[in-house]
Amino acid sequence: MAMAITTATATANSRWSFSSMRSAIPSVEVGVRTPSRVSFPSSNGRVSGRTCSKQIASFSGLCPLNPLISIGSSDYNSFEQNFTIVDNGYRVFAMRHGKRVPKLNRPPDQRRALLRGLTTQLLKHGRIKTTRARASAVRKYVDKMITLAKDGSLHKRRQALGFIYEKQIVHALFAEVKDRTPNIPGREVSDRWLTNATALILFLFYDHDEHPKLKLAGTHPAPACSVTKPLSSGRRDAAAEMEGLEGLIDRLMEGRKNKGKKIQLIEPEIRQLCTTVKQVFLSQPNLLQLGAPINVCGDIHGQYPDLLRLFEMGGFPPEASYLFLGDYVDRGKQSIETITLLFAYKIKFPDKFFLLRGNHECASINRIYGFYDECKRRFSVRLWKIFTDCFNCLPVAAVIDDKILCMHGGLSPEMQSLEEVGDIERPIDVPDQGLLCDLLWADPDREIRGWGENDRGVSFTFGADKVTDFLKKHDLDLICRAHQVVEDGYEFFADRQLVTIFSAPNYCGEFDNAGAFMTVDSSLLCSFQIIKPSK
């Protein structure tokens, strides 16, 4: 389906800008249940989740809010700058100041940088400022660009990115796209939509097989990760924003078909995802009060295929409610896919999907153990810093039906009441000692009574007597934590008063451990689902 368009040529005085992209994050009510007793079955069972409840009504668009790459003014000091294009058949060069710069067959990292730089320029300068004479002068190169983009091949479209490095070609390109859009009576679109150049650029970057010609012409929706609808009076269409989030989740689900496949993500959408999920975390308490039934999961550590297996066993949200105990990144090969999917589910189902902080959700730790390197290799150090800001807002503990206390690490000698956990202010870095440090780092120890030194060099170990005393004092039945590899995916301590859960099977490819998650039903009957190591 095509749409009618105004044919007015953009002038040098026309300006445009994106409106604020903040999402309205509603407050989330977390239910509290009547206390009941925790019990464990003699054999494993499986519990189905509850039906979907309230979703967040708005998700901010996945476009960059600020310039992503600064481009030197010496290279782009004037729209009137003259340059000569030399076509050698397979390669195209731009001749400027006597320099010959290849435009095609760039390495993937350079293509991504080029794409981000181009997006920055489009956002910075807005509507196309060009004359028909200038557009005609580069028309054949614009034609080649459009032809490559319409071809439908991802490789061809990425090649086409090489043609849109020069501003004059960019301007002429969008002038041509506007002129070529079919005019069909009864369907109109504003000039404002046409200035959303980001949608077109994102299209070139993705592998879309359906109707590439229509998408390029502006008559078919652009990729789900982009903002395809114009802003109206500074307010976003909530349905379109949620559709963008669902599109991101759909792309992340491609890992189910092709194990270990790197999912095609772009930095602006991840940055916006982090901005939104941070608001969700801060809208909920630091000590979550949750209700059963719920699935409780341990460390994931970037093992994205195993995370998808976990959801296949327990049910994809919102079929079941989930509580994750931390350590989503580091060590594994796909930390970015892992944390992106978890953040997306948190935004979409804020009152059925919960994430606690682990000791690896800390800049000083994931700077060393892999997450920093993955962010730097695939995107940028800046994205790693944005993730770090999100991690500093994660809650640190949860109580299920007033009977099961959940955290990543363990108990602390400084914790006299659960209210102290809720009083920890966020955002916050993990300190070297104290209550927050112990909640993320402490370990149980069968060989001691009381408190002992931790071999990790951080926090403490605690004996079974401390578990018993704590449960009795606070009228709890069970402590559920993660933080340690256990052979069967779960392991009891202190006469089944504490359980360790680890959800990353075949950890790091070096351990032959199983993974597991704990299912808590409405009567607080706890059972364990085993995730066997992949063969």
TrEMBL record:
Pfam families: Metallophos, Ribosomal_L17, STPPase_N. Its cofactor is Mn(2+). Keywords: Hydrolase, Manganese, Metal-binding, Protein phosphatase, Ribonucleoprotein, Ribosomal protein. It catalyses: O-phospho-L-threonyl-[protein] + H2O = L-threonyl-[protein] + phosphate; O-phospho-L-seryl-[protein] + H2O = L-seryl-[protein] + phosphate. GO terms for biological process: translation. One of its GO terms (molecular function) is structural constituent of ribosome. GO terms for cellular component: cytoplasm; nucleus; ribonucleoprotein complex; ribosome. Residues 356-361 form the Serine/threonine specific protein phosphatases domain. Its EC number is 3.1.3.16. Belongs to the PPP phosphatase family. PP-1 subfamily. This is Serine/threonine-protein phosphatase. It comes from Cucurbita argyrosperma subsp. sororia. The lineage of its organism: Eukaryota, Viridiplantae, Streptophyta, Embryophyta, Tracheophyta.
